[in-house]
Design a protein that fits this description.
The structure holds two protein chains of two kinds. Chain A is α/β, with parallel strands linked by helices. Chain A has one helix and nine strands, in the order αβββββββββ. A four-stranded mixed beta sheet of chain A has the order 2-1-4-7, with no helix packed on it. In chain A, about 25% of the residues are buried. Chain B has a single domain, classed as Purple Acid Phosphatase, chain A, domain 2 (4-Layer Sandwich). In chain B, helix 4 packs parallel to helix 5 and helix 7 packs parallel to helix 8. The radius of gyration of chain B is 18 Å and the shape is globular. Chain B starts with 9 loop residues before the first helix and ends with a strand. The chains are: A alpha/beta, B alpha/beta. The interface between A and B is medium-sized, with 20 and 24 residues.
Chain lengths: ~120, ~300
């Protein structure tokens, strides 16, 4: 009897743990980058893998957010938004393809505890 | 402001509008055009030259406070063109026809500009290549007979005109870009031409370094200008910066035209190159067209910038 109880407890704990694990990405961080006065703010960003970054254009002139071979937004008119979820660690340089002097970087770090963390 | 028509009164504006008819000679010395007054000879023997027009940066579809009525101001600019006493040979548009490359924006521009009754030669601005296919829409409409992303050349009245595209494949941190393919084409296009043939080069982003901090320049323009070095008269016409700027370097005259849509700040005078909102009755003095007159045996072309309204 106690054996079954213990087993059940273990099972419940296991299910709960699995549930928590699955829920983690959904509650992952969301970070906003403002585009204003022809600059990205903040210009450099450090995020954990799984983070969604949303750019919002607050200028009266359209901009784009482009990281060659990774992502390319459509043109963002005033108040236009673009989101990208960074799943792979690395350094992502991006720019506005209309005004290439506008540049920014997103540095994506592995989730804590991950084997690829590289921060032992 | 570096605008050369500072302090110019209405009568002077009218004078420059009627340059070809009255023989008021405008010349460019040290980058500043100056009126040399009425020239008797010019009246006796009318200039054998010809005139063409430049308009730029119509930004159809822009509706922000700096100018909520860009169709209206383009219409006014075209109305100005129709008052010219001598019909220009043709018109060039140095890009940013549209604001967001929408078919309806190109339609509006075409419809209004057609009222000038002139042949129009286009080059794209970065705002004209924002469709899904990054420029297919522009090329379908304006690219007939052009090479690559839309560059081409033609001759008119003995002058060689070259339309260049410096708004594609822009690199992060960089400026306007012509690219190797276009530069090789240019070198080839100029081969065998007489050094005495006047050259007019036009492109959207300035082909000289106006203000790199705001991206106002072209990365590889030095190579293009190198190919043009041997020619006695080279005029470079650009848009993009929505204000008049001039520079003379040896045989090369650089000039940027006003927008017909909204003004932008002088380099470094604002936190960004974004549109400036001016009081309504000042707006039309900061928008306009450029009239370029070529006179045989004159090394430099006379360029007259005319605001929509003083």
């Amino acid at each position: 009897m106690t054996m079954i109880k213990a087993l059940t407890r273990l099972l419940v704990a296991g299910v709960a743990a699995a549930y928590l694990h699955a829920a983690a990405p959904a509650s992952a961080e969301e970070i906003a980058v403002k585009i204003g006065n022809f600059t990205f703010g903040p210009q450099e960003l450090k995020v954990k893998a799984g983070t969604t970054v949303t750019w919002t254009n607050e200028d009266d002139i359209p901009h784009t957010v482009v990281s060659p071979s990774t992502f390319r937004s459509k043109v963002l008119d005033t108040d236009g938004k673009y989101s990208f979820t960074f799943t792979t660690p690395g350094s992502y340089k991006y720019f506005c393809s209309l005004h290439p002097h506008m540049t920014g970087t997103v540095i994506v770090e592995a989730q804590t505890g991950s084997a690829e963390s590289g921060e032992q | 402001m570096t605008e050369h028509d500072d302090g110019m009164n209405r009568r002077k504006v009218l004078e420059c509008m009627t340059w070809a008819g009255t023989g008021v000679l405008w010349t460019i010395t040290g980058g500043v055009p100056a009126s040399l007054g009425i020239i008797d000879e010019a009246v006796a023997a009318p200039a054998k030259g010809f005139t063409f027009l430049q308009i730029s940066d119509s930004h159809m579809g822009f509706d922000k406070p700096a100018n909520p009525n860009v169709k209206g101001t383009l219409e006014e600019a075209i109305a100005r063109v129709k008052t010219l006493p001598v019909k220009p040979s043709f018109m060039i548009h140095t890009g940013d026809i549209s604001h967001l490359s929408k078919p309806s924006e190109f339609d509006d521009a075409d419809q209004i500009i057609s009222h000038a009754g002139l042949n129009v030669r286009y080059v794209p601005g970065e705002h004209d290549l924002l469709d899904e296919d990054q420029g297919k829409l522009y090329l379908d409409r304006y690219g007939r007979g052009t090479q690559g992303a839309g560059w081409y050349s033609f001759d008119d009245n003995g002058v060689h005109f070259i339309g260049l595209v410096n708004v594609v494949n822009l690199k992060a941190g960089g400026l306007g870009n012509l690219g190797n393919e276009q530069l090789e084409w240019l070198e080839d296009d100029l081969k065998g031409r007489s050094a005495s043939q006047p050259m007019v080069v036009f492109a959207h982003i300035p082909l000289w370094s106006v203000y790199p901090e705001w991206g106002w320049g072209t990365e590889d323009s030095a190579r293009a200008l190198g190919y043009l070095k041997r020619f006695g008269s080279v005029t470079v016409l650009n848009g993009h910066i929505h204000q008049v700027m001039q520079k003379v370097e040896g045989n090369v005259t650089f000039h940027t035209a006003r927008s017909t849509a909204f003004p932008q700040p002088a380099p470094g005078t604002a936190p960004s190159p974004g549109p400036i909102k001016v009081v309504d009755d000042k707006l039309r003095s900061m928008l306009g067209i450029a009239c370029v007159t070529f006179k045989q045996n004159e090394q430099r072309l006379a360029i007259v910038d005319t605001p929509i309204q003083k």
